[in-house]
Structure formats: C-alpha cells, structure tokens
C-alpha cells in the first residue's frame, strides 16, 4: 500500500510539473545595434532616392513643380514651400527666375544623429505675367 501511495504522489507531481516545462518562453528581444556604419544589425539601409524633380510651364505662364521620392522620412522644398508628400505637384509663379531645391532626409542608422539628405534642384523662369512691363 505504501508503494501505491508513493507511486500515486510521484505521478501527481509529474502531472503537475510536466505541462509547465512545455510552456515556451518568449525569445529575448534584441535592440538594433548601430555600429557607426550605414547599417542596423548588419543590414544596410538604402538612401532616399529622388526619382524625379522637374518643372513644367503651364499655359497661364505659371509653372508646376513635380517630384517623386522613395525611401525618405521627410521631403521638403525650399522657397517657403516647406514639407511635402513624397510624391506630388505644386504650382508656382515666381516674379524672378528662382532655384527650387527638393531635399529628402532619411535615417541612415539607429541614432537620431545618423541621418542623410539627398537634394535635387530645378530653376523656374519668371512668369510672363509677373515680369515688369515697361512702356
């Protein structure tokens, strides 16, 4: 009878312990490592690409800036236009010939100081309607 009790208790303990052993523990999460290069955990981050940034003269003598950017965290155009979508258009009518520069900023690594910027510029000629008229 003693053997039966010991055997029963042993089986009961095993029945309680075995399911707990089968529970999977979550894997440890590793944070990205920035080793000072253009990579996170060994994977190189590609720079932003300005597919195009162009100007088209419209029939009303205004011009339309058109652009497309991939891989950027922020895209902006100077001359008081500011932050823009990665792809878009903007109608401009400068009074004088004006150089517009599109800037695409991207994270090169994990650090907030590890950023890159690519730029492309286009010159828009003054609109005829904005050119001073002399009699």
Q: Quaternary arrangement of the chains shown?
A: single chain
What is the overall number of helices? 1
End-to-end Cα distance: 124 Å
Mean pLDDT: 74
Percentage of residues in strands: 35-45%
Order of helices and strands: HEEEEEEEEE
Largest sheet: 4 strands, antiparallel
| Estimated structural class | mainly beta
Task: Report the top-level CATH class of one domain.
Answer: Mainly Beta
CATH topology of one domain: Immunoglobulin-like
List low-pLDDT spans: 23-43, 131-135
Spatial order of the strands forming the largest sheet: 6-5-8-9
Notes on the protein architecture:
The chain is 15% helix and 40% strand. The chain has 135 residues and is mainly beta. It has a domain at 45-127: Immunoglobulin-like, CATH 2.60.40. It has a four-stranded antiparallel sheet, with no helix packed on it. A three-stranded antiparallel sheet has the order 3-4-7, with no helix packed on it. It has a two-stranded antiparallel sheet with strand order 1-2. The model is unreliable at 23-43 and 131-135 (pLDDT under 50).
């Amino acid at each position: 009878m003693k053997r039966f009790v010991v055997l029963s208790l042993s089986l009961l303990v095993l029945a309680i312990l075995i399911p707990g052993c089968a529970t999977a523990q979550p894997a440890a999460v590793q944070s990205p490592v920035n080793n000072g290069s253009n990579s996170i955990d060994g994977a190189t981050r590609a720079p932003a690409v300005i597919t195009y940034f162009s100007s088209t003269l419209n029939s009303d003598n205004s011009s339309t800036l058109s652009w497309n950017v991939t891989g950027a965290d922020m895209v902006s155009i100077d001359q008081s236009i500011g932050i823009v979508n990665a792809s878009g258009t903007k109608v401009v009518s400068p009074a004088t010939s004006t150089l517009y520069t599109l800037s695409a900023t991207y994270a090169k690594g994990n650090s907030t100081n590890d950023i890159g910027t690519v730029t492309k510029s286009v010159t828009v000629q003054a609109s005829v309607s904005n050119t001073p008229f002399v009699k």
